[in-house]
Amino acid sequence: MEMVPSEENQFVPKEGVFWSCRQSIFDEMKRISQIQNAAEEPRVLCIIQDTTSAKTVNERLTLNLPASTTLSKLYEDVAHKAGYVNGTFDLAWGNTPEMAPLDHSSEMFLSDSGFEPGGKRNFLQLTDKDGEQPQVTSDESATADSSGLDDSSQERFIGPLPRDGTAGCSGDYSSPSYSYSSILNKSETGYVGLVNQAMTCYLNSLLQTLFMTPEFRNALYNWEFEESEEDPVTSIPYQLQRLFVLLQTSKKRAIETTDVTRSFGWDSSEAWQQHDVQELCRVMFDALEQKWKQTEQADLINQLYQGKLKDYVRCLECGYESWRIDTYLDIPLVIRPFGASQAYGSVEEALQAFIQPETLDGPNQYFCERCKKKCDARKGLRFLHFPYLLTLQLKRFDFDYTTMHRIKLNDRMTFPDELDMSPFIDVEDEKSPQTESCTDSGAENEGSCHSDQMSNDFSTDDCVDEGICLDSTSSTERVLKPKSLLTFELFSVMVHSGSAAGGHYYACIKSFSDGQWYSFNDQHVSKITQDDIRKTYGGSSGSRGYYSSAFASSTNAYMLIYRLKDPSRNAKYLAAEDFPEHIKSLVQKEKESEEQEKRQREIERNTCKIKLFCMHPVKMMMESKLEVHKDKTLREATEMAFKLMELEGVVSLDCCRLVKYDEFHEYLERSYEGEEDTPMGLLLGGVKSSYMFDLLLETRRPEQVFQPYKPGEVMVKVHVVDLKSETIASPISVRAYLNQTITEFKQLIAQATGLSAETMRVVLERCYNDLRLLYVPNKTLKAEGFFRSNKVFVESSESTDHQVAFTDSLLWKLLDRHGNTIRLLVLLPEQSPGTLANRTLCQKVGGDSDVPFDGSKGNRKSVEAILEESTEKLKNLSLQQQQQQQQQQQGSSTSDSQKSSDTSDFEHIESPTQEADSNSSLCVAADNRELENRIRAGGSSGASSDPENHFACEERSDSEVNNDRSTSSVDSDILSSSHSSDTLCNADSGPIQLANGLDSHSITSSRRSKAHEGKKETWDTAEEDSGTDSEYDDNGKSKAEAQYLYFRTEPCSQDDSTWDAQKCLVVHVDKRITLAAFKQNLEPYVGVTSTQFKVFRVYANNQEFESVRLNETLSSFSDDNKITIRLGRALKKGEYRVKVYQLLVNETEPCKFLVDTVFAKGMTVRQSKEELLPQLKEHCKLDLSIDRVRLRKKTWKNPGTVFLDYHVYEEDISISSNWEVFLEVLNEPEKMKSMSQLAVLTRRWSPATMKLGPFQEVILESSSVEELKEKLSEISDIPLENLEFAKGRGTFPCDISVLEIHQDLDWNPKVSTLNVWPLYICDDGAVVFYRNSTEEPMELSEDERNELMKKESSRLLKTGHRVSYSPRKEKALKIYLDGGPAKDPGQD
């Protein structure tokens, strides 16, 4: 047999090659077939969100898998694509993350596990398993203290890149080879983050630094808490100990710091206060020292952080030196010297400047005790001892006295990884005779540190020196020891990102276990590099100029902590096996607590939370939240709901059941008969955070039987309509199917209501005011537009109403009225004649039948009987005018009554008893208009002394209603009372005394009549130009008479309103009625014509706004809205309501409200002043001369254009509704005679006294700067060449702090006219400050400046003006050793 070599170089028979090739072909065909089948198989699109990291939560993994893929294979594919170890994470449904995760080992197909194929997206969430983050495939588990942290993993990164400026961002953040291990996750770093409570990043940075300090952590672990001596909640060392244990052993990504802050005595508000991290360090160390008294750790802070320095002064003549030893916990290094344009470039440079002595000479000479005279001397600081842990504070926060603002210095300052402090130590012979003296109180450690530079809080007499101390060593040792032992190693950089107003802290810390740098940014911990540390130097790459700080990065180092390099003292972190016994117990306790928390989370994950409703027999509709485990049965859930709704003792449990409910549509979807033992998780469709439906706990009486609710049914509320009584009954609930026909639906309603199906009319209200008659017998409910919850009206009678078209039928009119009628509560004025019981019910011709909805006509009759008497007088007064008007109307067309019956929607429900009332209504309207004409005639005759021409009017100022009425234009619209000074017409001939004791007078004077003679065309303006619509058309006929809609009144009960029932009226009215018609319907109840009262709408906060648009309907009103009626003449066409304010330029509050009045189009300014002055005399007690007052434009609080007497409103002066105007009292006759003149308000600034003078007005004939300076020179006696001026800023009176005015304003602008930039003084009222350029500012000490700043801030705040420098009110940082701040007993 011939042999051929195989692939393994072995010889096989030649026939074997044939069979081998054949088998390979079959295998390939099989594989191709499988591929083809897979291509034809439905595929499942899975979109997976990785929620295990803050950096990956916005990323999505997409997998398109065959539907036959198993769940276990899904886990494998996700693990491969995400770079995780399979089995270290869970997958849960994205829309229901509370459900149990998918089974790792399940062999179920995706198509059988709830996944939808065919291109539909299936959202999943990748979550932590058992509270631990998923492991990266090549990552080795690590602890915080292990030295084997692996930084070589290079798995593919699938998360988003951090933003620029993120804490600890390094160059590799934007690198294409950025690995997943760089993401902030615990499994890679082994470290735990701290949760930011709100603004506690400064606290988190310090805590992580202390945790990463081996000597501090180990000492804290060695301290043992005695529970018998102190409450653990308020023990700061114990809570720090717990926190450090959790940071070292917890499996969480981040832990809370609330227990630590609670031990500080802080409440939740402290979490929203950001403080300085260096300040916190000092305060916390002080608190720990207090807590550690009488313990081994009593001197721990001093041993680790305290250093010593000498504060000395040396005489340059005799060499005598006076000195004092001070201690320090940190060294504050100046970034930029005061007044310098350049910053120090490095920490070494700043340290050298720190110890650089200054020479005291000239007036600053030092009095030498040895020389007994003032001599030149040298003053400075010398370091004597550096602490084991050296803290450097870079003083980046400063105060700019030029701008009076707090600023941050972002200048570049480098710092080394290893800092040699030997050049800064004192090596002079301190024992020489010349230097063995001290200050008067100069014992060692006696005094405080240097007041300008040091931040010392701790000094003790029995200091145990750690580190390098030179006080007790020989001169040789002082020289040699620092060189070998004064090298410090950087291990913590606390970084501040932001401005002086606020920002964010985070810490870059080097682990002493492996030398790796980490960024601790609140809950995120990540590895960083030396490049990241260098990025915290601050500044920019350019030269260090004066403005370099303004353009530099705001992220830079703020505090540096170095550790002395001393192998004999450098400690390592305590390993878990070396923990003291009390720490091991604490670790076990915290572990059990985490396990309990994990179990509780598991319970929460399996708890269904759904909204629960119940129609309680006593408490009506109740709402609650039902929380039930998914494995609880429906029977158990019903019992829980029974107790939750407090039904025990009200109904029995057997009379309750849970049904599926839709609250929005008030729809009972289905009941659960026979499913009492079904688990709630299955019944509700799984555990979800929210459900698209609710549950209703339904109750019944013992003799009743629950009706089954089947899926697919619809709920119908059936209202039975009675055409005879014109009533609509309360709804009856009926359930139907969407596929039922109208005929079947009528049979269903007939069974429920007892009505006849043959004569039944069914009307569906599909939406608001959309009425549809269901008349096609075989049409289904679905085709007619039925939905889950529906409302229908049914009527079944033998009347002929069904023979007419539906829109013309009485049924349609009744339903239309029902849908458009609203219920209003109207508060009538006290001044209206008689109480409600004495007023008449007045109705329009062709109006409403006034049949109440409940069908009771007794109510109507009683109201008419009660109110009939009070209108007799009005009827008799107007009988003649009524007859004349009726004759005119009959001669031209049909009567109003006939018109109404022809066109009214309610002709079929007209009550015969209303005819007399309708006529009386017309009588009243005509009578009131006739009275108004009589008043006008009397006013124009000029016979104001005739008592018959005087009528009552209501005059109430704002101060009577609201004493602190603001002057804003918004507040001016909120009219809580009438300010009108207009005539209030009444039927009685004599003057009527009003409630406020004021006699009336007529505003229609002869001046106004004469002013409009020959100018009648000025009144014929468009209605939109006026502040209101006219109540009358061009023919003088009331517009309200054009159409009459439903209007019915009834007395108000105490239940209806908090108002006095005697003053309140309940009005049922069609909201399509216009305001004009509504007012005319109210005339009999108010007792005056509609032109003599105003309507105010009351809002929820009891603010009132006047409704003035008479042509607008009441469509914006809704049920139970409140309306207040106030007496006072309503506006006519061409009239405007105007608020008058007094301008007081030299008062603290320059704007004071005076009165409300009415200006008319075509009236001159002088005419308006003539009418205004009597009102001011009567209401404001201001007796003014017309030639000593002026009116001027008011814009917010700014005085503007001066109005001249001959100006005409709407011709020369634009006027609008709710207009506001200033009235200014003059000390001399008006100087403004022409519009070409300019009135400027000037104020002198005196730098020598730091005071501003009063305002003085200057009238300019032109816009010339030269003329302005000449005028100012005249009134101030400042030589023209020395006079400087500047325009004020902001709103009048342009207040500014006296500390800012000298340099902040643009003094002496280089322009020749006032109407160009930067002045733009083009109108009256501009404010100009001026000064003498030769006057030097007053010299202020620092204390005087601070005191003046406080006074100015207080003054400007009281006047409501902006304070330029208003530093953020920072709460003092305190740690309370007794558990909390002492509360003021006077406070709640």
Molecular structure report:
InterPro entries: Papain-like_cys_pep_sf, Peptidase_C19, Peptidase_C19_UCH, Ubiquitin-like_dom, Ubiquitin-like_domsf, USP, USP47_C, USP_CS. Residues 877-903, 966-982 have a biased composition (Low complexity). Helix 6 (236-249) crosses helix 13 (581-605) and helix 20 packs across helix 22. The protein has 30 helices and 51 strands. The chain is flat and about 130 Å long. It has 1388 residues and is an alpha+beta fold. The longest helix is centred in the first third of the chain and has 27 residues, at 14-40. Strand 34 and strand 35 (770-774) form a beta hairpin. Strands 11, 16, 19, 21, 22, 23, 24 and 25 form an eight-stranded mixed β-sheet that branches. Strands 31, 32, 33, 34, 35 and 36 form a six-stranded mixed β-sheet that branches. It is 24% helix and 23% strand.
Keywords:
1388 residues; 51 strands; flat; disordered N terminus; Ubiquitin carboxyl-terminal hydrolase 47; Papain-like_cys_pep_sf; cysteine-type deubiquitinase activity; USP47_C; Peptidase_C19_UCH
List strands and helices in order, with pairings.
Blueprint: E1 3-5, E2 11-13, H1 14-40, E3 43-50, E4 60-66, H2 71-82, E5 89-93, E6 121-128, H3 186-189, E7 193-194, H4 201-211, H5 214-222, H6 236-249, E8 254-255, H7 258-263, H8 277-291, H9 300-305, E9 307-315, E10 321-328, E11 331-334, H10 347-355, E12 358-360, E13 366-368, E14 373-375, E15 377-386, E16 389-395, E17 397-400, E18 405-408, E19 418-420, E20 468-469, H11 475-485, E21 487-499, E22 502-510, E23 517-521, E24 524-528, H12 530-534, E25 555-564, H13 581-605, E26 607-616, E27 620-629, H14 634-644, E28 656-662, E29 667-671, H15 680-683, E30 694-699, E31 713-722, E32 727-728, E33 732-737, H16 742-753, E34 760-767, E35 770-774, E36 789-796, H17 810-820, E37 821-827, H18 858-867, H19 872-877, H20 879-892, H21 896-903, H22 915-940, H23 958-961, H24 969-972, H25 1006-1011, E38 1047-1051, E39 1064-1070, H26 1075-1086, E40 1093-1098, E41 1104-1107, E42 1121-1127, E43 1135-1143, E44 1151-1160, H27 1165-1179, E45 1189-1195, E46 1198-1203, E47 1219-1225, E48 1238-1246, E49 1251-1260, H28 1265-1276, E50 1283-1287, H29 1301-1304, E51 1327-1332, ...
Parallel strand pairs: 3-6, 7-8, 11-16, 26-30, 31-36, 37-42, 43-47, 48-51
Antiparallel strand pairs: 1-2, 3-4, 5-6, 9-10, 9-15, 12-15, 13-14, 15-20, 16-25, 17-18, 19-21, 21-22, 21-25, 22-23, 23-24, 26-27, 28-29, 28-30, 31-32, 31-33, 34-35, 34-36, 37-39, 38-39, 40-41, 40-42, 43-44, 45-46, 45-47, 48-49, 50-51
